[in-house]
Amino acid sequence: MYVSVYVLVVGLTGCLVAASPRPNPNSTTPAGVTVEAAQVEVIDQVESFLDNAHYLSNEEIGQLFARLSKDYPTLAQPYVIGNTIQGRPMHALALNAPPPPREGNSGDLLRPMVKLVANVQGDETLGRQIVLYMAEYLASRYETDNEVQQLLNTTEIHFLPSSNPDGFALAKEGNCESLPNYVGRGNAAGVDLNRDFPDRLEQQHLNYLRAPSRQPETAALAEWIVSKPFVLSANFHGGAVVASYPYDNSLAHNDCCEESLTPDDRVFKQLAHTYSDNHPIMRRGNNCNDSFAGGITNGANWYELSGGMQDFNYAFSNCFELTIELSCCKYPPASSLPAEWGRNKRALLQLLKQAHIGIKGLVQDASGYPIADATIVVSGLEDKSIRTSKRGEYWRLLTPGIYSVYAAAFGYQSSAPQELHVTNENVEALRVDFKLSPVETNYDGNFRKQKVERAEPPEQLKEKYDGFLTPTKFEHHNFVAMESFLRNMSASYPSLTRLYSIGKSVEGRDLWVLEISTAPGTHVPGVPEFKYVANMHGNEVVGKEMLLLLTKYLLERYENDERVTRLVNGTRMHFLYSMNPDGYEISQEGDRTGGLGRANAHNVDLNRNFPDQYGTDKFNKNTEPEVAAVMNWTLSIPFVLSANLHGGSLVANYPFDDNENDFNDPYSRLRDASISGRKLNPTEDNELFRHLALVYSRAHRTMHLGKPCALFQNELFSDGITNGAQWYSVTGGMQDWNYVRAGCMELTIEMGCDKFPMAKELPQYWQDNREPMLQLIEQVHHGVHGFVRSSIGTPIAGAAVGLNGGNHTIYSGTFGDYWKLTLPGRHNVTVLGDGYAPLRVEVEVPAVEPFGMRLDVTLMRDDPQHWASANDFRIIENVVNTRYHINTEVRSRLAELENQNGQIASFGYADNEFSRHFNYIKLTSNVGEPEEHKYKLLVVSSLYDTTAPLGREIMLNLVRHLIEGHKLQDASVVQLLQRSVIYFLPQTEKFPDIFQMYNFNHSVCDPVMPDELAERILSPEAETSRDLLLQFLRSEHFDLMLTFSAGSSELSYPKGDSILEKFAHSIQRTEFNYSPLQCSTSATRQLHRETTERLTNLFYKLYKIPMFTLGLSCCRMPAHQQIASVWRTNIEKIKNFLGLVQTGISGLVQNEKGQPLREAFVHLLEHDSIYNVTRNEARFQLMLPKGLYGLEVSAPNYESQIIKVQVQHDIVSDLGVIKLHGFTLIRGEVTELNGQQQSGSVTSITGVVLDDGNHPIRNAKISVIHPTGLTHLRNFTNSMGQYYLRAVPVGAITLKVEAPRHFEATRDIRLPQGGQPTENVVFHLKFNAHVFGLPRFLFIIVASVLIIVGVVICVLCAQFWFYRRHRGKMPYYNFSLLPQKGKEQFDLDEDAGDDGETELFRSPIKRGMTIQPYFDEDQLERILHTDDEDEEVVMDLEPQMEIDVAEDSGDEIVMLHNPKNQRKH
What we know:
The chain is an alpha/beta fold and about 1450 residues long. Helices cover about 30% and strands about 20% of the residues. Strands 1-2-4-3-5-10-6-9 form an 8-stranded mixed β-sheet, sandwiched between helices. Strands 19-20-22-21-23-26-24-25 form an 8-stranded mixed β-sheet, with helices on both faces. Strands 35-36-38-37-39-41-40 form a 7-stranded mixed β-sheet, with helices on both faces. The termini are far apart. The relative contact order is 0.04.
């Protein structure tokens, strides 16, 4: 049906053609007639592919290309450029007419190569069929069409109809837009291949990125592009009608509307117009709701695209490529194919002819041999030079004009510039050849040639000087001697050495380091850094002396030994000879295994003082100055490999040096047991570490034999190497710190059994260790190395380089260079830079010299939209145009989220006093349902007002992330909200003041505010916000808490709990490990760090809330646009924190009747944590990292159960219902059971001893009291109340438990047959409140009464003694009143005398006393004399009343006197 359309085109000759046979090519028919007749006949043949138009499958494409090759063997050559992820071949076809016979094998020389590529995005399919139609069209018409003949005779055309056959297989015909989730657009892995290419690569990296990289389709395309000298290319797409030309992105990385022009912009516009002007629809420029002037556009001006194939072609190779959008519909129906072919055929033919514009030629040397990789430079277009092919060919597309052109090549003199007039009026390009002459061979450059005359010094010198070229004295060097030696070496070899100090010891001695390299003092890009550290323990001196000897050896033999010269030229070596010079000064020669001088001047073991991944103790709590100096030094230089030289054994030790529980196990740190009993703790690079250790061991004369030292006969090291933790635990060791924190591979080399051997033994140590030390340095060159640069060639510092998906990464240096040690074989290298898309490259490290390979990596700037699609549920707001939101905006956003997602979101604002100060949003599945079975998590923007603006933007992003994930039913988000209730608190109190500071000066990195919230929390003074927040924490009982800080990328958490430490490790373990932030220190940042630590401890101890504080960035308030980078850098860590709820255990606790035991609790054995069950269902749920745990489930008055459970990652193990049985306290008499003991058979008993509250009782004594004679079978409980009895005879026995302040208990048990241990025998002891046989309360009462009685008696005795003492010293006088006139006035009683006298102050007159109204003169005198003369006698008598004498007052004196004591006259 379609044939008639084309017959009408040649209607003038239609009848003649229909009646004529097919013309003979040898016919003498005039040329014009022959051509026309043939043309019409071929149309009928060629256009037949339009009948039954349909899209060919990938298998059909292969069959089509095979048929074309069979039908046209001299024209068509099918081949495959690679395979897809799913194994589909990527079929390609080359059409190229054979050269005329006269030209021989070189007839196709200077024939440009053009390629037509389609279907890079699998659902854009029209180009796929257009390319196939063009291949059939050209092949079938070659013999009869002059235009086609001319094209194929001068051009080699390659067809790749489908670059993404996997995506095509998923796409659906008739869909004008992409399917949901872009199914079919990307490859089988969902990757958009047109964003997967290296972007804007500099030419110097051409030879290093041809290895398979990125997606396999992208790798195949990239290899194909760079392996063939393509000149022109078209990449067919769908979804618009326009011809797009480079660049597709700009340096500013705007979303659109900014042109990014190449140096060849005029050429590209001509190429684009060539296609557009010949396309009937495209040339209009207004199609698919888009407007393009002339139907062409600059890619970046249309929309920004990084990693596109079009830019890759231009920047990476000589090829000029257009991206041609063919139709508005991406996958139009097959019925439209003939019409589309008619629109595009002429445009495509005209574009193919553009391969012949500009100039072309050969570049040869003086002898006529081609010069490959020569550069063709056009004046004015120097930024885009063209390089010659292997045959010396070049093609340079140019628009008409006058140009100055010259050729240049390495090792040749550049040609003289030629002025050329390019018209492009000829069928082929203007040919211009160049011949280059070689440069002079003798010239000086910025490098130094090394002339090596011999590999070894003369044999007699070697034997005489132990390998040195000058006499060498083997002796020990104290600090002064060592310093003098190093200064002499540095002065003797100033061009190879640099002597510098990295710090001082406690006593002020310099920590000297000597650098050996050809450029001392400077890191040379691409040159690896190596270090040796010796004398860390002051009395282990062999390493120090070996380094001094190695220094002399290397410097003397440089330029005299090929191996040494190569090593020094290619390696930058640093030797720290004595890390502990203070300890060395007090150590003693001849010390074999002593400890004198081991520690520094503070008596601290430096190899226990480094930060440890598993915890902190008294040994590494405070950092010593020597350790601080070494850490700063190590972090300041990108060291690749290191060794720490020790003494006291003979072994090469590799990480890890300790296990996670060794901080709680002092016995693991003792070097007193066979290493077979220790727990191995390998790193993920264990095989590499073993290899490095074996390199040293096997090169050593005796180390590889594994023989033990005389004093440690139990230490047997296979092959002379050992894992540190398996030998004995070293917590706070330097080698682990190097690996974990600094990214440097370090070994600990024990160089000999004696720590401080005699000087006469040093020659033998040198002979044994010289070769191992050299070989270990050489290992620094093994593995993968290269440079990490951006697409515009800028070095990327701090890019993380990982291997095979491991978590241990190294980081590129300031110049972008990196070194990743690895073993030979195939490896996947992952590179990640901040702000760049991750890159994975598969490499193969050779198993032969040089055992390494160079891999230069180019990272593309991230496309925010694609990053959001891959990591953030396509939330563009989180990564594009980010900014700080004011308080009202935050509240409105949260309220809007609640309104739109009421099922999972609840916004708290002014509901109560707390929400008036702290707005919050709560996320959980099914808001309003009971939350007893859910964890409670709290996320606070920051506890620092100055960091809160950044923290709450990250929090808003996180809330949007979770809500969008729930909408899309992402499994991880759905499970998270089903298992937890998450509160988000964006701090708003002081934001206006901080934001005003920021707007006033955007360069303010760390705004400073007085009285931060964290400081108010720690203050004892009452404050509303503080009190409300603390009350909120106290009432809600959160399981975990996350806050944000700034100043570093560290994660702060409560120290000392192994579970929380594992949580911290899992939070920080990300797929792509970004380089740790290197933030400068300041007083404010240090204060915040200390305050955070105090708050962490406060919340954990007071409220039992583990608080994790994540450092987001160096600045507390970075610029608006940097918020996206902060979010992208930290999102995986935040998701890891939330993911903690996905791993753990849960269960219910009930009694035998199925009733919930609401007072039950769960104790984690070997941990301090105790978890109460919920108050309703008696449910427990524990977040735990993966591992094996022992649980003790207890309740008052119930027997405990001990359960062993294996926790798997990302699985919450449901233990179901745990039933506890009520128990009866056992403390009665011993009941003997019948049965005879089976002699000769024993077993064991284990269990725990608990009190009434199910708390373990330590130091309780467990003994066997029956049968008699087994009193030796006893043991005591440990701190967890556990006991273990061995060798207990089987049969009936009685156990007795005794503990201080508890009633003893006994239990009769029958043990099974021997060999079957009896486990979980639990004793509950009742607290003994009796004192001296009395109840405590009664005892207190009795004791109190006795004390009171005793006090009263003491007081009375004291008063009696006081009374007697003071009564005998003076007479007892009483006074009476004179008689009164009236009795009635004083109401005189019957005691009054006859004379009416009475007493106003009456004294109690003792019985026997006489009262006399007066004394005569004689009596008075005797009385007075008696008082004076017999005072001592009177004091011995009983107290008596003495007579007082009144003055002459006129009053009568009444004298009282005891007659019994009167003296007789």
